[in-house]
Amino acid sequence: MTLRLEFTIEPFRDALPGPYVIAARQVAEESGLEVEFGPFGTSLDGPDEEIISTMARIAARAMSEGASSISLRLDRV
Question: Model-level pTM?
Answer without folding.
Answer: 0.90
